[in-house]
Request: fold
Amino acid sequence: MDKLARLFIRRLRHLARREARRTALRNGLLECKIVDVDGHLLCCYSPAFDTTRLTGDPVRDGLWFRRNFGGGLIAPKEASKPGSGPGGDGGGVVTMEVIDMTSVSPLLAFPRKRRGAIAQDAVLGNGIGRRAYAVRLVDRAAAPPLVSHVVAALVLARAVRSSGWSLREIVHTLIHVTPVITLHAPLDGFEREGVRLLEKSRLVPGGPFAIIDADHMFDDNHFDVHEGEVRKRLVAFSGAGVHRVTGNALRRRMISALSRDLPILAIAEKRSDIPSLLRISADLSLETGKLDRRFVADLIEALYPDTAIESVPLPSDSDARWLSLEDLVLAFRPGRHVRDALHVLATLIERNRSDFEEGDGEEGGGSEKTKGSGSKPSTASTEKSSASDEKPKASDSDSNGRLKNKPSGAEVIQPELLATTGGTGDRSPMTVETLAGYGRAKDWALDLKADLDDYRASILTWSEMSTKLLLSGPPGTGKTTFARALCNSLQVPLVVTSVSTWLQGGHLNDVIDKMAKTFAEARAMAPAILFIDEIDGIGKRQPAEREHADYWNAMVNKALELLDGAVKSEGLIIVGATNRPNDIDEAIKRSGRLETHIEIPKPDVPTLAEILAHHLGDDVTALIGEPVSGVGSETDDGFSLKKIVADHLREEAESERKDVDR
Reply:
């Protein structure tokens, strides 16, 4: 382990010991006194428990301490703000709190006079300082740093070392500048563990941070949620989510964060996931490579300091590249012997390799680039996902060039010309204004028409308009009809596609390519309407352990990327249609995406009458004028038409009931 990695590990251990001392102080196991040493405020700890039973044997005394006072190291509910404790960033004293000490031995409760008598006995029989020795028992009983934190810290140390910056320069940048930092490591699980390290530990100056996910920022009001947060805030652009915020939207979010003196971090497992604007603006760019034998050795040295590295069977560099950070956390658990951990690690390596080879065999050959990515496909479809993830863009062609210039399969419908006032000839085309039974959807469309006129007159910006709609309802309620009518009302082209059209490619990179090209084709005709039918076919993101989860999660993430960003999709009106709104990922329906959700119910009898009147035109008078048999004396024209519609609905209901009975 090099000097920098050793420094980071020592820092994590020091933080664990400091937290244990603060918890013991809150629970009454320790006392502290603030002293001034050359202008620096230091906290001098001393035991508040009976130390007469200490023998000077660390093992024996450690067992005695944990048995009697272990409950006093369980952190109580915070009574003061983070950073206000002794030695903390605030430099104050922790506010004492009354807690339940039933888990602590009665040895703690003895008269204050007795404490003073014990304190005078400052040296144990073997010359060890009693007070310092008792405090060190608290340190030894502290919980060790989390394995995930140790792994992330080692990756961070490697990135710092490869950057060429000195640690002093990096610390100065973090403290005295509002930094923009990019951090890239091609390791599965690094994004999650890296953000968790910043959120849960004080390893980085200013931490632990309150993480603000930039993917969920849509306006400046988002920061109001974090105004009461005591910890320093940090805006994080994580992984593929960075691509969901591009262009001017990315610029605005960066400016909003920096104007509030908030640091920005872009952390990604793929270099292509960090946009050029973040790279250009970065004060510090850190990058590291894949796992190797040396990394595993450093991890063993950090977790098992008494183990001789030469005596354990370490994986080779080529084997270690099959591992992810999650694999290391699974293998190296507290209390597990190092040889058992390495055995699990070897099994995971073989499993990852065999899973890849099985998927590779079904695909008929794989690239060495994909093999080194650390991906662990479990099926042929997830292998396709890993292969496509290595490409910087979904529209890139494969090695055979079969995706190049391939159309998306979307249909383009031009608007019909509206009849001029006083004109003659054919009937006017179907427009939103003539639709019946659409309720809120019709109101939304008419508002959009007015806003579009203001947008063309430069009165409104595109981001101020409601341009994304999710229509739901039973089959046959006219969701596609609404899109065609909207096309005519707005006099803009209509691009019609469906999720089933996208899925015809089968391979994940083909599907992603079709999705991206559909949006690109629609943007090329802006202002235009993009109508996506059967949008529930995208599905929901699945847990990682589910079969084919990589495939469907990649589809959902791509859909989020394409739907996001008002500036990126300027001029593009998006209407999604579904019969099953509950089967759509909730993130697709959040603000900034298909945020307006309107349900179209089955039409009632008056609505059906209006629909018939619209489609029949002049012929409806003949229908109304003819008497309906069985009506009796009730020959009212409106009643006759309603009777026809009601009979049709009754027949349809009886037919459905018979189908159910069968």
Notes: The chain is about 45% helix and 10% strand. Residues 411-599 form a domain with the Rossmann fold fold (CATH 3.40.50.300). The CA atoms of residues 589 and 595 lie 5 Å apart.
